[in-house]
Structure to design on (185 residues):
């Protein structure tokens, strides 16, 4: 039996989301002395448009093109056996070497911390970065692992039956962040 999902409210509209991303880009630049030493790595699926949006803001502000990588963590997940009998692995791509760079993992929602743990495991298999930072659009709490974000767009306290649903124009047709509720669980 699948739980029904109901929209509770819009947390961020397109204009608010743009402002949050701009602020996150400023925070990233403040934490890293040289933008040219950064690489943003988006975790599939919605971490990728976040990384691209942050890179575009940094380019606009600093006139420095920050490389953006794409990371698929499917085979690193600790719940792999429960998500699908034959999970689909998509491409992982880095525009340059990871070694000696400050990487910023980008994801839409930080929840238990398990996705980020899997992403760090995957990154280490591709090289030895100088540092790994974490930028998330929404931190909703309920951590199961000792993982925290270095840059957070919004912190939203949620209940276990609530879901944060992030939409980007590139993947969903519009930019917004919604709070949903699972009914009947």
């Amino acid at each position: 039996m699948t739980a029904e999902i109901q929209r509770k409210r819009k947390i961020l509209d397109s204009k608010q989301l743009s402002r949050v991303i701009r602020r996150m880009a400023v925070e990233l630049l403040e934490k890293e002395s040289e933008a040219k030493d950064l690489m943003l790595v988006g975790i599939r699926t919605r971490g990728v448009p976040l990384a691209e949006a942050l890179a575009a803001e940094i380019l606009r502000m600093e006139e420095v093109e920050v490389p953006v990588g794409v990371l698929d963590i499917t085979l690193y997940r600790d719940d792999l056996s429960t998500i699908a009998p034959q999970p689909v692995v998509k491409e992982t791509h880095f525009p340059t070497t990871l070694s000696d760079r400050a990487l910023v993992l980008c994801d839409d929602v930080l929840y238990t911390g398990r996705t980020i743990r899997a992403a760090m495991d995957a990154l280490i298999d591709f090289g030895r970065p100088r540092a790994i930072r974490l930028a998330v659009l929404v931190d909703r709490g309920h951590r199961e692992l000792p993982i925290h974000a270095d840059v957070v767009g919004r912190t939203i306290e949620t209940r276990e039956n609530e879901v944060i649903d992030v939409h980007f124009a590139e993947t969903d047709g519009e930019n917004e962040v919604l709070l949903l509720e699972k009914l009947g669980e």
Q: What stands out?
A: The chain has five helices and eight strands. Helices lie at 14-31, 47-62, 80-83, 114-126, 169-172. The chain has one domain: 4-183. The two ends are 9 Å apart (CA to CA).
